[in-house]
Amino acid sequence: MPTPINFPPEEVIKPIFGKKDFELIILWMLNNNEVCSWSNLKQLVKPSTLSIYLKNLQEKALIVKKEFNQYSISSKGKDRFYDISQAKKTKRKLNFPPDVILWKRNYDHWILWMVYNNSFCKWADFLNQPLSINNSSLSKNMNILIENDFVRKENKEYRITQLGKSEYSNMLRDYDLDRQSILEEEGKRIQDITKKTLKFFKKFRITEEETKFRFLNNLLRLPYERVKSNLDSEEDFHKILLFLSINHPTQYPNSISTEKFALKYQMELVTLEYYLHQIVEKQIYPTKFFKLNADSAGNYYLQTNEKLEQILNAIVEEHITRFTYLNKLYEDEKDKTYSRSLESAINAILKEACGNLFKQGICGALRRFLPDYIDYLAYKVEKEKKLFDAYDKLKGLIWHEILVYSSEKKIAQKYENYEESIQEINEAISSNPEDFDLYLSKQSVLIYFNKYDEILSFLDEIIKRFPNEHKNVEIKRAYILKEQRNIETGLEIINNLIVNYPDDKDLLVYKAYWLQYLAKKEEAIETIQELIEENPNNGMYHDTYGEMLMSFQDYATAKNEFLASIDISSEDWYIFQTYIKLGICDKELGNLELALDNLNRGKKLMETSKSEEETKQKWLQIANLFLAEIELLRQSKGSYSK
């Protein structure tokens, strides 16, 4: 009579968490039976899988194959069975991220937190509660972290790397954690690098406390691992960080040139200058540095989020907000006067910062630096994905206006003084009252200096002199009202034009835009869709619809509309804009290579476009902004060689 076969319990055959462990199943069977045949084992394991595992277990001498396809366990196999059985019974105690981190579904941050705060993690640790990351998202984020050398995989265990520890410290700053927690985490990393740092300070006689502090701060933010594959000497890397630490604005006028530094600290000048360029200009690290050129006094480097930059940021934000608020306040008060130039805000910033925050001698460099710094802050706010409360929304609006103002300032340098510019154009109109282009130029001057009330009165004059331009002038009036936040009245003007000019279908495009400005998504989309149904071969309508869908963040559908527009109207004047918008959609959808192709194609077509130079310059700035952002994304994902 054959001996009955013992089979494993349910928790071994069908584990509650994780995948089946076929090694455990086979060893359990052989440990709890004198022998097992192939037919016994294949009741629990598929033949193809069983064949692979039996072969591996035999090669490791964990099992023994007997005659007639029968198998038994070896003494070594019994030890292995005991080890993995205990591991299954003894559940590892894991540390999990706090709610403040789990609240945002940034899976890469969850993974980084887990591998930092546990000696190692298994794949199932991320799939199981409380994380419950789905397999697809886990695979995508884990691969990115491994490619960036933040996490390494060893024997199906995931552990943090030195570069990952640095990234973890940077990541913590994105969350509302108490300062003590962040300092404790940084303290752990400081302990790891203290011996090397002290040795470096002693060797090169670094005694100044502020320089030591800035060096240590730079070392925590800029880990050597990022450049290790190309820069063999870690000591040379420390020298580069020392150069940045010495040439700080607070040290003015005591800077040191790259030539003198390379000679003093015995390193190749080309190495120093190359990696300074990579860190400061190419931004190979998430931490950004600003360069202040003080002419004969040398270059000084300011790091984002350090104390000096945070104070400057606060000063700039206060004065830019003041500049915007007071401009709005005095728009409707004819008896009040207020300087409306961005230069006045810059002068106010310099007055507060120089002598208190920066030494007087470096203020010339600061004045030259501020316009670009204001642009940086504007782009930074513009790119924020979420603005939670009313103040933040207002802040975003303020910086958006400053960004537009700054862009127009760079394009239209000819308008330096309002009184002189308006006098010059008025004299030209008096001499040539029938030249319509001169009236357009006056509009441009008034818009540039935010003279919206004057523009509205001037538009009435234009209609009296050029009644045939009524439609275009009224569209301009609607635009000015939009700039004054009076979008509803602008929509009324558009609707009246549609009644008065029923054959002009393009007016429905304006209506769709104004409905979009009023956040009436369904009505806006319905308007443009009806227009496309009546005119399916009008590429401009498809382009407009795509742009509208972009504003509602429906990038996949928007992309289809842009492709339709290109297919219909590949030679039209606006098509370079379509390619740029298509590239932006690709970027938002994660297709970075395709985004690069389309953005660059748009720039190429721009060169031969007959559009106004001002329009082309604005689109060039948009394209370059997204190209720069894509480059940073590719670097962060390890797409570029280090």
Topology summary:
Elements: H1 10-13, H2 22-31, E1 36-37, H3 38-41, H4 47-59, E2 63-66, E3 70-73, H5 75-89, H6 99-102, H7 107-117, H8 123-127, H9 135-147, E4 151-154, E5 157-160, H10 162-172, H11 179-203, H12 209-221, H13 234-246, H14 258-264, H15 269-281, E6 289-293, E7 299-303, H16 307-329, H17 342-353, H18 363-382, H19 390-411, H20 418-431, H21 436-448, H22 452-465, H23 470-483, H24 487-500, H25 506-517, H26 521-534, H27 539-551, H28 555-568, H29 575-588, H30 592-608, H31 613-636
Antiparallel strand pairs: 1-3, 2-3, 4-5, 6-7
Helix pairs in contact: 2-5, 7-9, 7-10, 10-11, 12-13, 13-15, 16-17, 18-19, 20-21, 21-22, 22-23, 23-24, 24-25, 25-26, 25-27, 26-27, 27-28, 28-29, 29-30, 29-31, 30-31
Structural description of this entry:
With 642 residues, the chain is mostly helical. The protein has 5 domains: 10-89, Orthogonal Bundle (Arc Repressor Mutant, subunit A), CATH 1.10.10.10; 99-172, Winged helix-like DNA-binding domain superfamily/Winged helix DNA-binding domain (Arc Repressor Mutant, subunit A), CATH 1.10.10.10; 179-303; 307-411, no CATH class; 416-504, Serine Threonine Protein Phosphatase 5, Tetratricopeptide repeat, CATH 1.25.40.10. The protein has helices spanning 10-13, 22-31, 38-41, 47-59, 75-89, 99-102, 107-117, 123-127, 135-147, 162-172, 179-203, 209-221, 234-246, 258-264, 269-281, 307-329, 342-353, 363-382, 390-411, 418-431, 436-448, 452-465, 470-483, 487-500, 506-517, 521-534, 539-551, 555-568, 575-588, 592-608, 613-636; strands at 36-37, 63-66, 70-73, 151-154, 157-160, 289-293, 299-303. A 3-stranded antiparallel β-sheet has the order 1-3-2. It has a two-stranded antiparallel sheet with strand order 4-5. Helix 12 packs across helix 13 (234-246). The longest helix is centred in the N-terminal third of the chain and has 25 residues, at 179-203. It is flat. The relative contact order is 0.03. Mean pLDDT is 81; it is low at 334-339, 383-398 and 407-414.
